[in-house]
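Budget justification aside, the reviewers requested a transparent look at the raw inputs and outputs of the sequence design task funded under Objective 1. We therefore reproduce one unedited record. The lines immediately below are the structure tokens for a 108-residue chain.
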């Protein structure tokens, strides 16, 4: 089952959020301990949801890049006071084509 979040702009289509990601948003982002545990035991889900990166890209990356990704996840802590900002940012970068940050950076 997928839940929806409002699009980042008025009139934008809702963003589809996978159930595992929704669980992460509603639990682990409210608890520093749960987020830390998720980075250890559900790293693929965290990588996909928080870093917006397919886990297979990380798995195929160099050891240096994998270490850098680990540092990024570690430096998100404490996550609980950052939760709303992360959700806002994730909604923005996941926006439909032409509206998201990734499109702006790529010139789309």
């Amino acid at each position: 089952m997928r839940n929806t979040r409002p699009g980042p702009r008025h009139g934008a289509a809702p963003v589809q959020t996978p159930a595992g990601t929704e669980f992460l948003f509603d639990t682990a982002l409210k608890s520093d301990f749960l987020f830390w545990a998720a980075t250890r035991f559900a790293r693929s889900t965290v990588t996909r949801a928080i870093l917006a990166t397919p886990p297979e890209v990380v798995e195929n990356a160099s050891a240096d890049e994998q270490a850098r990704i680990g540092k990024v996840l570690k430096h998100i802590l404490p996550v609980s006071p950052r939760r709303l900002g992360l959700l806002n940012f994730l909604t923005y970068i996941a926006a439909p084509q032409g509206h998201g940050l990734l499109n702006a950076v790529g010139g789309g």
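The radius of gyration is 14 Å. Confidence is low (pLDDT under 50) at residues 1-8, 98-108. Computational costs for records of this kind are itemized in the attached budget.
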